[in-house]
């Protein structure tokens, strides 16, 4: 089954169960101070759970463009290295706002996977919340009993609060969740070791596909729980993972969501995916990141030097750097993938088709400018090496390259390693700390009611890796 048809099948199934199908919300959030990007299907419905506003329908389903590169959900460091976490992915979701509850949600999840899609029942594992007496949260007997109708008890896993209890914050709606995992290993591998032992073990072929959250409690300020007056369902299923299961492959990158992009990268860079591990990582990073960047731009978030724009710039630069280092790409090329993305996704997400030229041009421009930085940096780094006595390169000089020219420090370290040099990292860290102190001091400027903030929390919130330039992230706090 093609990915297009899998998406359609999901939406049609929930439409047949009385759900209103709505479009994805934009990937970039403009009016939520707690979140830069949509990172789950429920973000656009949050207010309904909090009791503010009334949804158009008590049953809604959609596929939501999600981005997990900051805050609580930050998968960026895994992307490229594993085969099932992306920066941008689609989350298929169905919701009940005070309407159906556990029985329908789990019955339909099972019906969709095993009867509509005909996935092998023996490969599915489910989890339910084990309960937490010290916090007065009970074991989810109801979900357990529903699953017992479909799966043998040894494939029902009891999960703890971390994996199987969902909370929006310290207070507010919360409740247990029930996940569905699938074991895609060969029969031979499955005979050797039960999938049960591999659920939650980060095994690339035993992955979580669907999470069903049941909002049934309200956590009060004193920490105690009370039953909500109306109960809600919030589900999220990873579309690319579902495609992997349906297409009989063992990596999201081997599904038709990614293969056309990979073929194009192979052609442009004259490489073969699957023949060299480092190049494979680079190719996965590029085809993943181009989606995130393209959809962010199509939704109105241009790369820039602060806030969400800066996150997008850094994602794109990560892709450029992987290409530059491992695929030897010295000319812009990532922008060429936009055409393919637009052909593939445009039918369902018209924004990518409508904004195709803008997206292409912005990416091409960003690539050209960052490649110039990398080129200059290489020359400067050569000079540093030539004036180095011994094999240890000064951390202060590496910092200068990083701070003044925007040359990524991890690239410096990599090149030095390849040439048989080491980097004095302690010295680099000292310089980095000094720079942070300087910008913090400089930031104690107040503009009217607002104080400009540069702090470590902000960097943690936004960021992921060391590909920073000398640009700082700016946020404002009301004073
Ligand atoms: P995981 O444990 O695999 O990181 P999760 O528990 O963080 O997933 P949820 O927040 O429950 O994920 O999101 C619902 C579904 O979205 C997951 O069951 C999974 O199929 C999918 N998903 C989550 N994160 C990603 C990602 N980074 N890339 C692709 N799919 C994802
Ligand atoms: Mg996760
Ligand atoms: Mg999980
Ligand atoms: Mg989950």
TrEMBL record:
Localization annotation: Cytoplasm
Domain Alanyl-transfer RNA synthetases family profile, residue spans: 1-479
UniProt keyword annotation of Plastid present: no
Cofactor(s) in the UniProt record: Zn(2+)
Keyword annotations: Aminoacyl-tRNA synthetase, Aminotransferase, ATP-binding, Cytoplasm, Ligase, Metal-binding, Nucleotide-binding, Protein biosynthesis, RNA-binding, Transferase, tRNA-binding, Zinc
Taxonomy, superkingdom: Bacteria
One MF annotation (Gene Ontology) recorded for this entry: transaminase activity
Annotated EC: 6.1.1.7
Catalytically driven reaction(s): tRNA(Ala) + L-alanine + ATP = L-alanyl-tRNA(Ala) + AMP + diphosphate
Cofactor: binding details: Binds 1 zinc ion per subunit.
Domain topic, free-text comment: Consists of three domains; the N-terminal catalytic domain, the editing domain and the C-terminal C-Ala domain. The editing domain removes incorrectly charged amino acids, while the C-Ala domain, along with tRNA(Ala), serves as a bridge to cooperatively bring together the editing and aminoacylation centers thus stimulating deacylation of misacylated tRNAs.
Function: Catalyzes the attachment of alanine to tRNA(Ala) in a two-step reaction: alanine is first activated by ATP to form Ala-AMP and then transferred to the acceptor end of tRNA(Ala). Also edits incorrectly charged Ser-tRNA(Ala) and Gly-tRNA(Ala) via its editing domain.
Annotated family: Belongs to the class-II aminoacyl-tRNA synthetase family.
UniProt-recorded name of the protein: Alanine--tRNA ligase
Source organism per UniProt: Flavobacterium sediminilitoris
Encoding gene per record: alaS
């Amino acid at each position: 089954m093609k990915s297009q048809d899998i998406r359609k099948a999901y939406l049609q199934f929930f439409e047949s169960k009385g759900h209103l199908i709505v479009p994805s919300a934009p990937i970039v959030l403009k009016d939520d101070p707690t979140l830069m990007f949509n990172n789950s299907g429920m973000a656009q419905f949050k207010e309904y759970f909090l009791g503010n506003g009334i949804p158009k329908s008590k049953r809604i389903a959609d596929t939501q463009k999600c981005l997990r590169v900051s805050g609580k959900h930050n998968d960026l460091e895994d992307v490229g290295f594993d085969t099932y976490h992306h920066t941008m992915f689609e989350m298929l979701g169905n919701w009940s706002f005070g309407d159906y509850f556990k029985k329908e949600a789990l019955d339909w999840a099972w019906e969709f996977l095993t009867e509509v899609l005909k996935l092998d029942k023996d490969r599915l594992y489910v989890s339910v919340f084990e309960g937490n007496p010290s916090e007065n949260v009970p074991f989810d007997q109801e979900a357990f009993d529903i699953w017992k109708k479909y799966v043998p008890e040894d494939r029902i896993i009891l999960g703890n609060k971390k994996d199987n209890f969902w909370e929006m914050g310290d207070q507010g709606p919360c409740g247990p969740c029930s996940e569905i995992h699938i074991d895609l290993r060969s029969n031979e591998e499955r005979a050797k070791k039960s999938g049960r032992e591999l659920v939650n073990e980060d095994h690339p072929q035993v992955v979580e596909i669907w999470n069903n959250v049941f909002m049934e409690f309200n956590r009060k300020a004193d920490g105690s729980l009370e039953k909500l007056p109306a109960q809600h369902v919030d589900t999220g299923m990873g579309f690319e993972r579902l495609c992997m299961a349906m297409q009989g492959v063992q990596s999201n990158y081997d599904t038709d969501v990614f293969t056309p992009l990979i073929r194009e990268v192979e052609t442009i860079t004259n490489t073969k995916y699957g023949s060299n591990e480092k190049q494979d990582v680079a190719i996965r990073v590029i085809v993943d990141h181009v989606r995130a960047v393209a959809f962010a731009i199509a939704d109105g978030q241009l790369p820039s030097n602060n806030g969400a724009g800066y996150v997008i710039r850094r994602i794109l630069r990560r892709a450029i750097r992987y290409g530059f280092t491992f695929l030897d790409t010295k000319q812009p090329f990532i922008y060429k993938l936009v055409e393919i993305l637009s052909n593939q996704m445009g039918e369902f997400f018209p924004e990518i088709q409508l904004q195709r030229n803008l997206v292409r041009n912005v990416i091409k421009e960003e690539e050209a400018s960052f490649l110039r930085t990398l080129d200059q940096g290489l020359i400067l780094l050569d000079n540093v090496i030539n004036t180095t006595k011994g094999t240890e390169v000064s951390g202060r000089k590496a910092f200068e390259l990083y701070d003044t020219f925007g040359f990524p420090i991890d690239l410096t370290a990599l090149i030095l390693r390849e040439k048989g040099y080491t980097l004095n990292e302690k010295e680099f860290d000292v310089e980095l700390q000094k720079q942070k102190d300087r910008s913090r001091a400089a930031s104690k400027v107040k503009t009217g009611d607002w104080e400009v903030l540069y702090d470590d929390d902000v960097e943690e919130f936004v960021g992921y890796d060391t590909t920073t330039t000398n640009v700082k992230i700016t946020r404002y706090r009301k004073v």
